Amino acid sequence: MKTLIIINGPNLNLLGKREPNIYGSLSFTEFLQEIKQKYSEIKIEYFQSNIEGELIDKLQSVGFSYDGIILNAAAYTHTSVGIGDAVKAIKTPVVEVHISNTFSREEFRHHSYISPNAKGVILGFGLQSYELAIESFMK
């Protein structure tokens, strides 16, 4: 059985409450239960933190033993050289995910420190972006 982990960054603990016009009205906890049922043949773990160092620590702790990482570093995508370096340093493939289309938002969101070292990038499909990332690891 493959083991994947979804790692979410700052403010994603507020999904379902925060800017529903951008992020939808479903909480991530509700969504996680749905995808765990849908992809029952895969072990899906979850971690969320608003703290950059905790995200780096988690990437390092799972980055040599898991089959895949789905990373939505949120605002840290555009600011954290440290998270980008952590993705580069680990062996486990990382798919960068964003709920919104970051290129349709403010210009500072058009740059990612993660993308150059990611297996792929999926953005703009709402929570379905996570499902597309899961599918990428099923082959």
Automatic annotation (TrEMBL):
Catalyzes a trans-dehydration via an enolate intermediate. Substrate binds at N72, H78, D85, I99, S100, R109. InterPro entries: DHquinase_II, DHquinase_II_CS, DHquinase_II_sf. This is 3-dehydroquinate dehydratase. Homododecamer. Pathway: Metabolic intermediate biosynthesis; chorismate biosynthesis; chorismate from D-erythrose 4-phosphate and phosphoenolpyruvate: step 3/7. The record marks R18 as: Transition state stabilizer. The lineage of its organism: Bacteria, Pseudomonadati, Bacteroidota, Flavobacteriia, Flavobacteriales. It catalyses: 3-dehydroquinate = 3-dehydroshikimate + H2O. Belongs to the type-II 3-dehydroquinase family. Transmembrane segments: none annotated.
